[in-house]
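Weekly puzzle thread! Below is a chain. First person to post its structure in token form gets bragging rights.
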Amino acid sequence: MRQRPLTILFVDDSAADAGLMRAALAETRDPVWLSVVTDGVEALMYLRREGNYSAAPWPDLVITDLNMPRLSGHDLLRIMKGDPSLRRLPVLLLTTSDAPDDIATAYELHANAYLTKPADFDLFRAMMESVAHFWGVTAPVVPRPDSALVAHDHPPGSARPHSPFLHESW
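Winning reply:
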């Protein structure tokens, strides 16, 4: 069983969707640490610990939108799965698109899941509860690359938050 909170990197250009994610995760039964970036380029900087993200906590899970400026969710997924230091990191696409081509492309690029955003907040909250519980409790922890271990990560036995902790800038 996990000894520390699930750490999620949420990639979405919509401030409203980021707010919905914060609200949904605030109600989960399992502790979650949330970092938010606004597009795929910023996500890569975060994951590669570049610029302002040099001390960012390593995520256990990436949840990304599909349609974003600069670098789409599909392109982010393609780059991550092609990078040996990032390819094992689980990636979920969370989008309003239910287009068969978008879904097929996501799985061809080795997405771990493709989730369509429900319009109802209660359904969204229930979806995020399931995601947080599965990836935070049920699924084994993905080993972190050595370069991802920094002092700001949350070591086993660290204090568990009562609500999500949001990192938006470093």
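Puzzle host: Confirmed. Bonus trivia for everyone else. Residues 137 and 154 are 16 Å apart (CA to CA).
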